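Sharing a chain and its predicted structure for anyone who wants a worked example. Both blocks are below, sequence first, tokens second.
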Amino acid sequence: MLPISFPIAVSFIASPQRLVVIYCNMWAKTVTENFAGVIHGLNASHLTDLAIQRSKRMILDTLGVGLLGTSTSVFHKVIQYSKIYSSDVSSTVWGHSDFRLPPLYAAFVNGVAVHSMDFDDTWHPATHPSGAVLPVLIAASEVLPQKQKLSGLDLLLAFNVGIEVQGRLMRFSKEASNIPKRFHPPAVVGTMGSAAAAAKLLALDQFKCKEALAIAASYAGAPMANAATQTKPLHIGNAARHGLEAACLASLGLQGNKQILDMESGLGAFYTDYTPQILPTLQSYSWLLDQQDVAIKRFPAHLGTHWVADAVSSLRKHLVQGEDSVPISRIKQIVVKVPDVRYVNRPFPTSDHEARHSFQFAACTALLDGSISVQSFSDQSISRPVLKELLSKTKLEHPSDNKPSFENLYCEVNITLQDGNVFSERCDTFYGHWRKPLSTEDLKKKFHSNASSVLSLEAAEGIVETVDNLEKVEDCSVLSAFLRGAQLTKILSKIRLP
């Protein structure tokens, strides 16, 4: 919808696409207006092959970790809570065919599932981008009128808009480049990205896109103090739910501050060095996802522990030569050199959530077992006496050159034996980092391993096939059917490929 103040200015422009570009440039006088104009103006033709390929990997991985997350205690708690709500419309709860929830709460519980094991993707500057966006799009797409059903390409566009907004907002602050100390980024930029993606999916105009961002900002924020607890996954679930709610309220005419992204008392309240910037023009838009991939984890724990695991796995080879297991009694001390990230400094974790946020646990588990897996965080594994013995011999050091940034940090591990021998290994880039991404084969293996705990092989294969061809799928509601566990033969007719 064009503002009535510009009818003459746009009447001489023949191309509709050109009209959108000129209109956005004329309308945007603030950063907030610029963001709203770009969110509204981006279309499928702006997507690049690389952005599509990377976002499909993110989508597949997010669905897998979300399905696995439906087995966790925190997921079952939020399910019990959300069942008190009812609505005339409902959306799929991933991995469940026996009940549904209103779209807001489906987005909430599925978002919680995605982050319930800290197994979801991670970006730089530090945030978990996909879990706040994908549950929103899948939940909302199920309740649109039939004539507005979303294609796979529509879903990819809205998904990329949500990811892009998060990445751009993180770059408003140099402080955001470091691993966070005060607040959990997905609770802030994830909420904004969720609102942007929902606004795109709902086809809101520029004015309502701006209001959606303003409303979402008042839902944003969660302290890091709840890291390593069952509450942390709620940060992602709330970001999904609140972003969708913000877009819905904006669609009904609710208004907020028109300069929410421009002001230190707006989104700038979360940063000490806030410097907002406008987005590229629609004529030559460049996606951040084109410039940098995301990290996809091989095991469910804080990203920093992945450097530790790879360094220790390399070092372990020196200790097990000719032996069946690591000679624990011969180890005098383990020194792990990592950045000073206090919420991941947990010498003796007692729960799975604490263990996922422990450099020490990652080092000792990788040393004992040769790798870290989903099973590593079971109560039985965490309570092993031999693990506790190793933990008692482990200490952290924080070299001054080892900065708390997922782009630049490293891990060096030194093990000193009782006879004085010292073994050392260092990891600068672990397998799964954006500089060393998982192969397509390993990504699909991870997905199948995760999804098989909930879905049949046929349903899991249906998701892989659908995501592989997402830009060609006419009705993306097929994903929801597979996520409920529907059989391929029952829904094959919904997948129409050239």
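Comments welcome. Strands lie at 91-92, 100-101, 331-337, 394-397, 411-417, 422-427.
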